[in-house]
Specification:
By secondary structure, this protein is α+β, with helices and mostly antiparallel strands. Helices cover about 45% and strands about 10% of the residues. The longest helix is centred in the N-terminal third of the chain and has 22 residues.
């Protein structure tokens, strides 16, 4: 032991160096243990870490990287602008084609009949006879009309449309800016117009109570009396004449004015489209749903 003491005492500079190292090590250890005392990673090294670390690992970290947050925020913004916010994400990201192929034709017709409170078989029979000579009386008239979203929105009736690659016709049940509400027999869903551009070329099928007959001046029928009564109940510019069975000159004049107001051919004849618009304007007729607060408005038409 004496030799060791003499060895240290003969080298005072070495003792001082050892003490200095001990003090520095103790201070650094205390700094690391103090809250917030982690050393900063240089910016160049942070960049390398973000570049080299797989996204799957970043997702597992307690605090996501800046680049990941930005990309996720952008994706969420795009998603919110395109779909209904209240429904599950997985369902809303379902492709249009897949959703169309889940349609059930029988259920669509049943839902349509229920909305109208009409017999489903009568509706189907009437629609099967659109182009037939001497159609069987069903108490329902069914018509196929040209036109796009604007025409359907103007008509404001639930109608059927045929979409490419669809397992069944789709029932149009509502509108809001840039979106249409469809029912495929399984579920109701909002779609942006531009999502359906490649699947629909226009045209729709509509029904109303009545007959398939085209009515014109000098004809007589109990159906004409019903149509006159309906015209007399319109909230705007109703028919003021006698509600009898005669297709009179004053009623023909009223029909011509009604056609002009609705953008129809003004021929004074109650054909399929004119009867349809007269039916749609009447009280108690089913109407398209308006967009709910839960649905985000999409851009475009």
């Amino acid at each position: 032991q004496g030799s060791a003491v003499s060895w240290y005492s003969s080298r005072p500079w070495l003792v001082a160096a050892v003490l200095a190292v001990v003090l520095v090590s103790a201070s650094y250890a205390g700094y690391l243990m103090w809250p917030g005392g982690q050393p900063e990673t240089p910016a160049s090294e942070q960049s390398e870490l973000l570049t080299e670390t797989p996204v799957s690992q970043l997702d597992q970290q307690s605090e996501p990287a800046v680049g990941t947050v930005d990309s996720e925020a952008a994706a969420d913004t795009e998603f919110s602008n395109n779909v209904l916010s209240s429904a599950p994400r997985a369902e809303l990201r379902q492709p249009v084609e897949q959703w169309l192929n889940t349609g059930r034709s029988t259920a669509v017709w049943a839902r349509w009949a229920d909305i109208w409170r009409l017999d489903q078989q009568r509706i189907m029979t009437a629609c099967e006879q659109i182009d037939a000579d001497g159609p069987e009386p069903t108490g329902v008239f069914c018509t196929r009309q040209p036109g796009g979203w604007n025409r359907i929105r103007q008509l404001n009736l639930p109608v059927l449309i045929e979409l490419d690659n669809s397992a069944s016709p789709m029932l149009v049940e509502g509108f809001q800016p840039g979106q249409v509400l469809l029912h495929n027999g399984e579920q109701q869903r909002w779609w942006r117009f531009n999502e359906l551009l490649d699947h629909w070329t226009g045209g729709y099928t509509a029904v109303c109570p009545g007959s398939m007959q085209v009515w014109r001046e000098d004809m007589q029928d109990s159906e004409i009396q019903r149509l006159k009564s309906l015209a007399a109940e319109l909230p705007e510019q109703p028919y003021r004449g006698l509600a009898d069975e005669n297709y009179s000159e004053d009623f023909a004049a009223w029909v011509a004015d009604f056609q002009v107001r609705n953008g129809l051919v003004s021929d004074r004849i109650l054909g399929q489209e004119s009867k349809l618009f007269l039916c749609a304007a009447g009280p108690g007729t089913p109407q398209l749903q308006a967009g709910s607060e839960a649905a985000l408005l999409a851009e475009g038409d």
